[in-house]
Amino acid sequence: MPEPSTAPELPVLLDAAKIAARVRELAAEISRDYPGRTPHLVGVLKGAWVFMADLIRNLSIPCTVDFLGIASYGTGTISSGEVKITKDLDLSIEGRDVLIIEDILDTGRTFRYLQELLAAHAPRSLKLVTLLDKRSRREVPVRADYVGFDIPDVFVVGYGLDFDQKFRHLPDVRYIPKLPSQ
Ligand code: IMP
Ligand code: MG
Predict the structure, then answer these.
(1) Residues enclosing ligand 1, CB less than 6 A?
(2) How far apart (Å, rounded) are the C-alpha atoms in residues 42 and 128?
(3) Whose CA is nearest to atom 19 of ligand 1?
(4) What pTM was estimated for this model as a whole?
(5) Is the pLDDT of residue 151 over 80?
(6) Band of the pLDDT at 47, cuts 50, 70, 90?
(7) CB 6 within 8 A of CB 160
């Protein structure tokens, strides 16, 4: 059997065990905050699906799920803030306790866009769960209700996150070291 590719050349920021432990804590917190309710989790494709798959399996309350596909214009490591919907929601969110599930909160532009888009469909409540938060990069004053890890301003990959569609399969969160010229 071939060994899975783990990209040993990229330094590890958060290893799989640390991520798993924190995901369990987040799931416990969310379960406590929605007693007797069935929150509706909306995962933002593609970065958030690995995190969301682990999160829902650690909830002790029922939930429903849907996905929103978005592509932000711009390539490489810079998000332009202009967002295009590539897959719309399948289910109505009207009257639901919606939790947007994101991989990472960076400038905050994507989340502000999603917040306005989803709020227009009259959810009962709307909160944001993000695995990672790069607070130092914020350009729009938004905050997440549940944060897995605050991380420094480095470009991260793995556990669903990509660089040019690569590295999503890595079990750890790793970072791409800055070249001296950057
Ligand atoms: P924002 O609109 O600047 O908050 O960008 C959020 C989106 O940019 C995330 O959902 C990711 O898709 C992408 N992104 C931001 N930082 C990183 C990173 O370090 N690695 C991978 N994707 C990132
Ligand atoms: Mg994303």
Answers:
(1) 47, 79, 81, 102-111, 155-157, 161
(2) 10
(3) 155
(4) 0.93
(5) yes
(6) very high
(7) no
Mind listing the domains of the chain with CATH numbers? 9-166 (3.40.50.2020)
Distance CA 112, CA 143 (A): 10
Q: How many CB atoms lie within 10 A of CB 80?
A: 12
Residue 19: φ, ψ to 5°: -65, -45
pLDDT score, position 103: 97
Q: Which residues contact 53 (CB under 8 A, 6 or more apart)?
A: none
Type of residue numbered 38: T
Hey, what amino acid is at 65?
V
Using DSSP's 3-state secondary structure scheme, residue 151 falls into coil
How far does residue 37's CA lie from ligand 1's centre (Å)? 30
User: Looking at this protein, which amino acid is placed at residue 171?
Assistant: P
